[in-house]
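Lab notebook, page 48
Experiment: co-folding of the full assembly
Goal: obtain a model of how the components sit together before planning crosslinking
Operator: M.T.
Materials (sequences as entered):
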Amino acid sequence: MEMKALIDKIFQKGRESGLNDMEVYYSAGSSLTLKVFQTELDTYNLSESEGLSLRGVYKGKMGYSYTERVDEASIEQLVRDVVENATIIDSEDEEDIFEGSKEYKKVDSFNLGLSKISEEEKIKFVKKLEEEAFKLDKRITSVQACVFGDGYGETIMSNTKGLFLEDKSNIAYTYISVVAKEGEDIKTGLAYRTGNDFNKFIAEEIAKEAVDEALALLGASSVKSGDYKVIIKNSAAADLLEAFTGIFSAEAVQKNLSLLKGKLNEKIASDKFTLIDDPYMEGGLASKSFDGEGVACKYKKVIDKGVLKTYFHNLKTAKKDGVETTGNASKGSYKSSIGISPSNFYVEKGERDLNEMIADLDKGILITELQGLHSGLNSISGDFSLAALGYLIEGGKISRPVEQITVAGNYFEMLKNIEETGSDLKFGLPGGAYIGSPSLKIKKLSIAGE
Amino acid sequence: MLNRKLIEDTLTAALSTGGDFAEIFVEDRTNNGIIMIGGKVESTMSGRDYGLGIRIFKGFNSVYAYTNKSDRNTLIDTAKKAAKALEGPNLNLTINLTKTDVKGINTILIDPSSVEKTKKVQVMKKAYDTAFNYDELITQVTVSYTDYTQNIMVANSEGLWKEDTRVRSRLGISSVASKNGEMQSGFFGPGASKGYEFFEDLDIDHYAKEASRIAVTMVNAKYSPSGRMPVIIDNGFGGVIFHEACGHGLEATSVAKGLSVFAGKIGQQIASPIVTAIDDGSIPNQWGSYSIDDEGTESQRNVLIENGILKGYMVDKLNGRRMNMDVTGSSRRQSYRFPPTSRMSNTFIDKGSSTPEEIFANTEKGLYAKHMGGGSVNPSTGEFNFAVMEGYIIEKGKIKEPVRGATLIGKGTEVLNKIDMVGNNLLQSQGMCGSVSGSIPANVGQPMIRVSELTVGGREGEK
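Observation: model returned without errors.
Model output:
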C-alpha cells in the first residue's frame, strides 16, 4: 500500500529527528454540491482532497503539524514543525500516543446505495425540491437556497505503538430556504435532511415543511415583555444544547472554564432531564467505533435524572483526573489537535407530544427558532439572551405567531426548571457531533418584546 | 506557481463544453497557531494548505471544482470533470495570458516564518501576565496567536494572470472573571495585514487590560433591563451592527437574486441622512485589506451609502453578470475550497459631527453599548441580533451602572433610519466574517452612534 509506505518513511524521518512516539492521521474525501435557482442548476461544485497530519512526542511534549501536499517532499517540513511546536509547549499535562483498545465494535457509516445514486437523479431531486416549494403557495415569492450535497470520506490512523485503524463513511444532505411575502411582511422557512439513505429524501415533504414554517410566521408581531412559561421546540432545544456542549468537557472543567467543576454526582438539573452520549445509536450521524485518539467509543449517561454522572474525557484529561477516558477525544480534521467532543448526544425523550404539552398551557410562548447562538450566549456563565421566533399560546392553543422578541435566562438555572420533556426527540445538523433534544417545557424565562 | 502552458491547457479543457469564462486559483498557505491557557502553551499547530480551484461560467451558471494536486494529469482531468456539468458547443475562445505585477498595498517588514516561535510565546506571556494580574477576580486567561502567509495565483480565460502574497497576524486575549460562583468573560482580538512587526508595535498591555476590565466589570454587573429604548453604540467593534444589519444585504451575493431588502434601491433614501457608509479593502495594512481580490481585481474604496442614499453594492464577477454591474474588487473566499463571491473587507460608517459628550448629554434614558459581541442577520427579512459584551444604563445623560447579558434585536432597514446622532470618533476593529464563501478576515467600524429606539433583550423587566 502506497500510504503505508509513506507513513513508514515519515516515522523513520521522525525517529532520526529525535521524535519518540508518533502518529499519522490521514484523511481523503470527495464531495458534490448542487444548487438550483429558478429552475436552473446554477451551481455545481465538486472536490477531491486529502490531508495528512503528524503528531509526535519530543522530549516529553506533543507537537503537531499538517500538510495538504501529501508526498515525500513534505516529510522534512512536517517533522521539523512537530519538533519546533513540541519545544515551546510548557503545559505539564501529559499527552500520550495510544496503543489501542482490546476490542472495537463495528460501525457501518458507509452506505453503498448512496454511492450508486446517479448525478442525474440528484439533479432531478434538487430541481423538484424548488419546484414543489413554489407550487405549494402563491405567497412563496422566492427560494433563497435549494441545495443538495453529498460526500465520501476515509481516514487512516496509524502510530508507532502498532495501532492501525481505518474508517470510511458517506453522507448526503439537502436544505431549502423559502421566502414568503404578504404585503410588506416577509418571512423565511427552512427545512433540511441529512443521512446516507437517499430514499429518505422526499422533495414534497421537505418543501412543505419549509413552506409551512414561513407561512405560519406571516403576520407575526412582538409580545409584551415579561416572564413567561416557555416551551422550547425540539430543534431549537437541540441548538441550545449544542451551544452549551462545551461545559461538559473535562478540559473546560480542568481549566476553570466550566461551572460544572466540582459538581460530579450532584443534582444539577430537573429529575426529568437525562442526557445521553451514544456512539452506537442507530441512524446516528456521529456514530463511530473509535475516537480521535484511537480509543474505542462507549455509551454513557452524562446526566441521569438530573444528576451529573461524568464529564467528557480524552486520554490527557482522564489521566489528570485519575479516571478512565470516556472515548470522547475529537480530531475535527487533520488540521486540528486533539480536543473533546460528544458523539450522538441527546436529551432522553419523555412521554407526551408537543400538542399535549401545549394543551396544558394557559399562557406561554412556544419558541421554534433561536438566533445568534454563537454570540448571544455566554457558555461560561450560562447566561443567554437570544433573538427568537415562535408562537403565543393562550388557553392551551397556539393563538398567533411571534417575532422581534428575545428570550433570556441562564442555562444552569434553566436545567433545574425543566418541567417536562416531550416525546418528539429531534436532531440538528451534524457537525463534529450529532445533537438532539425533544421539546422542553420551562417553568419561567424572561421575554423582551414591546 | 504554475507555468503558462499548464494554465492555458487547463483553462482550455475547462472551456471545452461551451463555458464562456474559466479561471484557476492556486493557494499555498502556511499557518501558525499557538494557544496559551493559564500562562502555559497548551497547543501549537502549524501546517501548509495547498490546493487549486477551477471555476467555469456559462451565462449565469457556474461550476467549481478543487483538488490538492497540481500535476498536469490531475488538473486537466479536474477541468474536464467540471466542464462535464455544462453542455454546449465549444466557443473556441483564444486564451492569451499576460502576467501583470500586483501593486502591493500592505508592506510587510518582518516575515513571520523568520521569527522563532519562542519569541512569539514571549508576546503571549506578556499579554497573559498583564491580563491575569489586572484584578484578583480574574481566574483564567486564554491567549491565542495566529500568523499566516498566503501565496495566491489567479489566471483566467480573459488573459488575467496575477500572483500575490498576503500576510496577516492576530493576537486574541480572552479573560474570565469569577465571583460567587459566576463567571463573565471579556475579549480583545487586534489584528492586521502585517508581519511580525505587528506584535512588536502592538500596545499589548492596553488590550490585555481591556479584556480583563470588561470581564471584571461584567461579573460585578446586574442583569440588563429589557424593552424598547434609545441605544448608544460606541465606536470600533460597534460597527458590527452595520456589518450585520446592512452590509450583508449590500453584497451582490444576496442582491443579484433579489433576496436582499436593499435590492433595486440604488438612488433611494435607505438610511437617515446623517449616515454615510463605506467598504474599503485598499486601506494599507488593515486586517480586511488586500491588494487584489480572489478574482484578481484591485481592491478599491466603495461608497455604499452617502448621506442616507444607497450608492452601490459590493459586486463580484458572476453576480455582476446577473446585475449588469461592474465588479468592485470585493470577491473573496476563505480558501481554494470555496468559489469566491462578493464579501465585505473593511466596512464602516463614516464619521459624523457629534462629540461623544453631546451624544450622552442628549440621551435622557437608555442603554450604552460600550463593547459589542457578535451577531447574525437573516438577509431576506433584515432581522438581526447582536450581543452586548459591555453595557451600561444611561440616566439623565450620564453613564450609570454596568449591565450584563443584553442583546439588541431589530430590522436593518428600521435601524438605519433611526440613527439620529453620529459621532466624530471613527475607529475600526477586527473580526472574522462567516458566509457562503467561508470565514474571512474583515474590519468593522464606526464612530459612536445613537439609535433612537431599539429592542433590548435582557433578564430584568422593563424599567
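Interpretation: The mean pLDDT of chain A is 95.
Next step: discuss with group before ordering constructs.
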